Amino acid sequence: MKTSAKFYIAGLSALMVSTALAQAETITINSFGGAYEEAHRECIITPFEKKTGASVQVVTAYSADAFAQLRAQKEAPQFDVIHFSGGQEIVAAQEGLLSPIDASKLSNAGDVYDFAKANLAKGEGPAYSIAAIGLVYNSQTADPKPTSWKDLLSEAYSDHIVLTDISNGYGMLGFLMLNQVSGGDLDNIQPGLDAIKTLLDNGAIVVSTSPEIQQEFAQNDAWIAAYASDYAYTLRKAGLPVAFVQGQEGTPASFITTNLVAGRPNQDLALQFIDMSISPEAQACFAEKLRYSPTNSKVELSDEVAADVAYGEEGVKGLIRFDPVKIEANRAAWVDAWNRTIAR
One of this protein's GO BP terms (predicted)? Predict the structure, then answer.
């Protein structure tokens, strides 16, 4: 073999090794944009890069879009870790798009509440944050202060109630909880629809987006809305006298999960990222920044932050996760029934 050929082969081999190492030291994830992505970087991404020396490439993609991309890229996925907030990990795991997780490879798994890691072996990643749905209320004007989901039906609040359209994910969970306390379940939403009709007859209004809720509280004398703890914090930061309470009958929850994508070469690094996501430090940071509820039992929060989230053994006992797969299967029919109910 000629010397030049030897150098060529040696150089090519070195390049291949270098490229492989570069790939192994980079993971690609999705995040949800805006304030969430800013917190994601501060609480997890940047600390992970500093700790491991790896790089994290972030693709802004909400749950439904990220899931669609994962499905479309089944043979050659771009994501190493994928995040969902709508239960997409259940279907993705069933379709073999996610890898099972060995809990022994996650140093923080032992401290995570059981409900947040129940199906790791099936491929459903752990929940690292929870959006808790309860009653967002004006702490100065709501009298008496609400404590129950049934309080929404109280005449004391009548025309001061804001309802959120069920095309909004938080709105859907709030409606399903109202349906449950009214005697319905996921096989029968008519009690909830009847309750909505009564509320509208008493003067409640329906909005579709978070900014509309803020407008109602700021300008139109809204007292109570069934919505998420993180948005109560957003309203308070905007200068509004708003507080959050979990209804005594239970707290609908949107699980934000971190999942290991199947068919990727650097799963060990991806698992380190997932492990950091469920660490007490990362979760305390998310609670502080956005008021998401932690799933790690070792998280320590100030009284101020703890008041806004489902916190500790007692706080998480009331969390309710309505079956995301059943919601998705019935969504179109439920939205149609909802639209007919609210048509005035």
Answer: thiamine transport
Q: Are 245 and 258 found together in one domain?
A: no
What pLDDT is stored for residue 14 in this prediction? 45
CA 233 to chain CA centroid, nearest Å: 16
Quote the number of domains for the chain: 2
Report pLDDT for 70: 98
Arithmetic mean of pLDDT, 276-283 = 98
Interatomic CA distance for residues 319 and 16, integer angstroms: 50
Percent of the chain with pLDDT over 70: 93
> DSSP state, 344?
-
Domain hosting 172: range is 133-250+323-342
**CA atoms of 169 and 67, how far apart (whole Å):** 16
The residue type found at 292 is: Y
Note the pLDDT of residue 256: 97
Scanning the structure block, which residue is given the tokens 């202060």? 145
Task: Please tell me whether residues 199 and 121 are part of one structural domain.
Answer: no
pLDDT for residue 20: 43
Query: Helix, strand or coil for residue 78?
Result: coil
On whether both 187 and 334 belong to a single domain, the answer is: yes
- Same domain, yes or no: 217 and 145: yes
State how far the Cα of 283 lies from the Cα of 303, in Å rounded to an integer. Answer: 16
Q: Which residues make Cβ contacts (< 8 Å) with residue 4, sequence separation at least 6?
A: none
Residues in the chain: 344
* CATH number of the domain encompassing residue 301: 3.40.190.10
- CA pair distance 341, 175, nearest whole angstrom: 13
If asked whether residues 206 and 330 sit together in one domain, one would say yes
Sign of CA dihedral 24, 30, 33, 38: negative
Asked if residues 109 and 103 have their Cβ atoms less than 8 Å apart, the reply is: yes
Cα separation of 290 and 309, whole Å?
10
CA angle 313/292/150 to nearest 5° reads 70
State the Rg of the chain over Cα. 23
Quickly count: other Cβ atoms within 10 Å of residue 261's Cβ. Answer: 24
Q: What is the mean pLDDT of residues 220-228?
A: 96
